[in-house]
TrEMBL record:
UniProt superkingdom: Bacteria
Protein name: Small ribosomal subunit protein bS18
GO molecular function: small ribosomal subunit rRNA binding; structural constituent of ribosome
BP GO annotations: translation
The keyword Oxidoreductase is annotated on this UniProt entry: no
UniProt keyword annotation of Cell wall biogenesis/degradation present: no
Assembly with partners or alone: Part of the 30S ribosomal subunit. Forms a tight heterodimer with protein bS6.
Pfam family of the protein (one): Ribosomal_S18
Amino acid sequence: MAFRKRFAPRRKFCRFCADKDLPLDYKRADILRDFVTERGKIIARRITGTCAHHQRLLTREIKRARQMALLIYTATHDSSVKKKSMI
Ligand SMILES: [Zn+2]
């Protein structure tokens, strides 16, 4: 076989479908942070496994959280990331 599986296959699932109590809300930046990179980019659905419906809601809540300054737009606004890249 030319292509061997390097990783054990792990079923991706939508965290918001699996856990109905998991709040999808701009005020819960701690949860939203799992779905953005450390530079502030929203992680693609194909990577996180979030379903289309919840990814749409998630994107909206992340953008709200950014406006409320709970999440970052880009790393340049975050002094901690800036300092790290300076080293
Ligand atoms: Zn879902």
